[in-house]
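ingest -> validate -> predict -> emit
validate: passed (alphabet ok, no gaps, 261 aa)
predict: started
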Amino acid sequence: MTFSYQQAASVAAAAQAAAGTDAKILAGGQSLLAAMKLGLAAPESLIDLSALSDLKGIKLDGGKLSIGAMSTHAAVAASTVVQQAIPALADLAGRIGDRQVRNRGTLGGSLANNDPAACYPAAVLALNATIHTDRRSIAADDFFKGMFETALGEGEIITSVSFPLPDKAGWQKFKQPASRFSIVGVFVAKTGGAARVAVTGAGAGVFRATSLEAALSSSWSQAATMGVIMSTDGLNSDLHGSPEYRAALIPVLAGRAVAAS
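emit:
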């Protein structure tokens, strides 16, 4: 496999280099490089964003938590700003993959790749976050389109993500021991009287569990999740579990996430 490599000097330069070519944006590389090794991806060029300091950083901005796209999982987990503003998000970041993945993988890279079992998409969707790119801002409900698919256009680059601050939030996942990806992961968030619940690992992509949202909007309690029966429609069936198994796990994990919030 042959490809060219360049380290971008700016977001604009990266977007220009990626336009009209079979190029891939390289963030942390924890998914892309593995895919290239397996022959599942063969880009003509890699555009590396690692030198762009303006894509890093974590701060409270206008009552929202703003995280740069090139912030690593380890940086999010260790941030006192995240720990105080949205503790569940710091908890999630600290449980992604292993130490190497957490120190190389990035928020923006995870969202752009949109692996159906990735952790960050559940947090972004449940927290009703906004994904900012070099071209526009995209609501979480409009961003995730399916397995490895997003609303990003060709050469469009995620620059940051802004999270509204919830009243309560929690995260639980039942992980595959080797990869640490979620067999089922559930992120719950409560803001005012409304609850949002996002599920990863169970289907072809992250999705909102509206029946659990209704139950938790009526009563933010672990008990409220116990009577919810999840449909098996569209849920995965593989060596790790049947659709029925995953459907049974979702309300259990949602209840544990509420209890931990």
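Residues 243-260 form the longest helix (18 residues).
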